[in-house]
Amino acid sequence: MHECMLCERDMKKSKSQFGNGCINNIFKFLNMRKPARGKNKEQFLYKNIMNKTNISRINKEQKIWLADRYLTYQYLDKLHYGNFDKLKEQINTDIDNINQVEKFEEMITTRKMKLKEAYDLYKRERKFENNLSKLENSNYEEDDEKLKLLITSFSYIFNMYRNKNQYEKYAFWQTVIEVGGRYANFKIAAEFLQHSLEEKPEDLFFTEGKIVEEIKKQEQFQKTISKIIKKYGSNNNEFVFDSNVDEDFPVSFSDKDLYFAINKAELKMIGKKQNENWNLDIKLHDRYDYSEFKKIDKYYKDTGSVSKSIFSSTLYNLAWYSMKFNVMKEYNIDITFKMKDFEVIDL
Description:
Blueprint: H1 20-29, H2 41-53, H3 60-77, H4 85-96, H5 109-112, H6 115-135, H7 144-152, H8 166-183, H9 187-196, E1 204-206, H10 210-217, H11 219-232, E2 238-242, H12 256-262, E3 266-274, E4 277-288, H13 296-303, H14 306-324, E5 331-342
């Protein structure tokens, strides 16, 4: 079986390295004019790549290997998500030393990224961005069909056990950040996810800002605080609460941004009564990790939408796998703030 070098489809008896459709796509992708009719397109391609890389005096096989590495670099260079700088530097080194290569496998980057893998990444990202463009003028929160469309563009990452390419997973999570931050308005969750993709993410500490203000105004959080005060402050002017000691008051948020960012954090609170209201010192602690595999039906109950359920639970479970494969890193989040003159809600 003889396969196309780009798409790896069987070309049967053809002696060419590329299928006719693939080599036409390559000329278009490189913005390179095709040769006059009758001329060998592949030889014309090799010659142009040699000119672009300032390489000469290489044998037939080295020309093919040069084209493989050059095209791999170009597809990676067109990706908008993920950091491929180190890999591209290594590919450039392989290209510079191509005249010394006796076997294709000698080049270290051939084991890190095949041409087809880079090509597939490029195609999938184009598909994802096309779907993104269809979301720009739609109501993301209400349009289930647009969510389903977006889910289909995630399909390349679903089988994490078979496909353990770190670069592809990193690029995938960058697309999630793009969607979550720009279109779904999950700005806090997107910020935390971005932080988890760093090589060694530091712990995060907050005493003010958007996340603190969002937490303070959450009605569900205020109700939880009120229940705690009623239990511990009814006959006292001061109290101390620790959710690690009393697990009857879990912290959760109806706001979906906070739900994905810090849902079910540990809560510590000191309350001091002032007249009929309370001054509160509050600390929330969360470990940014995905320690359990979530079931879709739970998210269905939370969102009330089948497509939103699939979307949210799928992202959560993919994050669980990404933690397992060290694409995303764990870190601590501590949020400390005061709530003055807090009025207990009549539940």
